[in-house]
Amino acid sequence: MKPISLLVALLATSSFAYPAAYDERSQDYPPPVSFGLEVGGILTMPVLWPSYGVDTKLGLGLRLVPEVQFALGNHFELRGFAGYEFTTWGYRQANSDGTTDDFSVKSNFMTLGLAGQYDFARRGSFASIGISTDIPFRSVLTDDVNYGDGTGETLTGRFQGEQSSMFLDFGLGRQLSPMVGIAVGYRLPLVPFYDNAGSTVDLHQINVNLRFTLL
Asked: pTM higher than 0.85, yes or no?
């Protein structure tokens, strides 16, 4: 009688354990489509050419970007996003006549992009690569002019000649919870933000973002 009771107890235990293991395994698969929001900060590193007599200034900014994710199996995702981006940047320029210009720029963009993402482990770390474009709305420029004789003035206007820039995006991140992740990315310019009159401006960016899964 004792062996029969032991066998019944083992069967009952296994019948309860299997659904739990199945539920845990089924959670490894992401939903086919999900929607989220990416919020983060930007470090902008301008690169100007020609660079002789120019000292660039780092800038800071922010990103507010809704996104949609399409699951392509258990470990691959395709992310599309469109949103708003703001950043500061600038440079100082020494002129041949002894004057100097200290330019500070505030730029507003609509940013669009598409990226592929590989999840090393569900709710774990991930890596992504993609392509994106920043479409400029408006860039406000402030020029602090030093005439070299103890006098100067401040001029304000619009930075003229911006164009839509294009980037190759690289990212690494980790899920902090099923609904929140953190990502660090680098954006390599492929098409400059400014390209006119024999000079170019590239805005390299490093961003740190929180990703919220909403639906």
From this structure: no
